[in-house]
Amino acid sequence: MRPTKRSNSFAPDSRDDVAQVRRAAGHHASAPLAGHAGARAGVSRVLAVVTAALGLAAPLIYADQQRDPELKSVVSRAIAEAECFSDKYDSAVWYKLMEPRLRTIVREQDDRLDILKQVYCETHRKGEARLPPGLVMGVISVESRFDRWAVSSSGAVGLMQVMPFWPEQLGMRRYELIHVAPNIRMGCAILRYYLNYEHNDVRKALARYNGSIGRRDYPDKVISAWTRFNGADDLGFAPESLPHHR
Predict the structure, then answer these.
(1) How many CA atoms lie within 13 A of 47 on its CB side?
(2) Which residues of 12-26 are buried (b: 16+ CB within 10 A; e: fewer)?
(3) 139 or 88: whose pLDDT is higher?
(4) Average pLDDT over the chain, rounded to whole?
(5) How confident is the model at residue 125 (pLDDT cuts 50, 70, 90)?
(6) By the number of CB atoms within 10 A of the CB, which of 43, 45, 47, 191 ranks highest?
(7) CA atoms within 13 A on the CB side of 75
């Protein structure tokens, strides 16, 4: 796909957005940090959030950047749908298997459970093609290392590094990308679209998601991370309905 220039679209569009970003940054900066290294990391995260909010992120142009015209209706439908609900037994198994694996990465238990809930729910959404939850966990691991405040040099935001032009196209506030539920909901909708587009070829779909078509480094990293979150991909549906990497 022909590269398109990206505007600094995460700039606040109202005083409310500026206030939200300031409050979010202030809250994050006040979290307890261990030593000088922790302080530097905290300051870096706050600066990243504020930089993206002001539209100052360094522009990088990729081959895709989540700009396929058909994606708007896909992401819009995902956001419009009500919260999904999953089988209590299967989701309990999922939590039991995955929660310990996140303890060294995500400190707060409530944050861990929120991420796991949203990943399981969105990958099992009724009426949609199934996503392996372990694959989504692998994407989050590589894209943000489960840091919902993460902002890339190209302006992508949050757990699944969703591009910042989506909120304004969907009538949302831009700061919502740092929230767990809408970020994972949009990210899963985009990944599902690319898997369908590439006929369940996971490597090609991941390359499109990341905007690195023709390169193997990003798909290889995600697939490697996927193996660290295996063991629960078949919960709730038949294994043959899932995409597999090659």
Answers:
(1) 7
(2) beeeebbebbeebbe
(3) 139
(4) 74
(5) confident
(6) 191
(7) 26
Residues 6+ away with beta carbon under 8 Å from 17: 53, 173, 174, 175
Quick one: fold of 63-241? Lysozyme (1.10.530)
Instruction: Name the β-bridge partners of 162.
Output: 157
Say what the alpha-carbon torsion angle 126, 132, 136, 141 is, to the nearest 10 degrees.
Answer: 150
Cβ–Cβ contacts within 10 Å for residue 69, how many?
6
Asked if 21 and 175 touch (Cβ cutoff 8 Å), the reply is yes
* Contact assessment for residue 143 and residue 191, using Cβ atoms and an 8 Å cutoff: no
Per-residue pLDDT, 81: 59
Q: Counting beta carbons within 10 angstroms of the beta carbon of residue 96, is it exposed (0 to 12), middle (13 to 18) or buried (19 or more)? A: exposed
Among candidate residues 140, 190, 185, the one with its CA nearest the CA of residue 160: 140
The DSSP letter of residue 54 is: T
* CA 126-230-213 angle, 5° bins: 80
Contacts of 33 (CB under 8 A, 6+ apart): 39, 41, 42
pTM: 0.67
Cα-Cα-Cα-Cα torsion 94, 190, 239, 159, nearest 10 degrees, comes to -20
Query: Residue 206 and residue 204: Cα distance in Å, rounded?
Result: 5
Give the whole-angstrom CA distance, residue 234 versus residue 246. Answer: 18
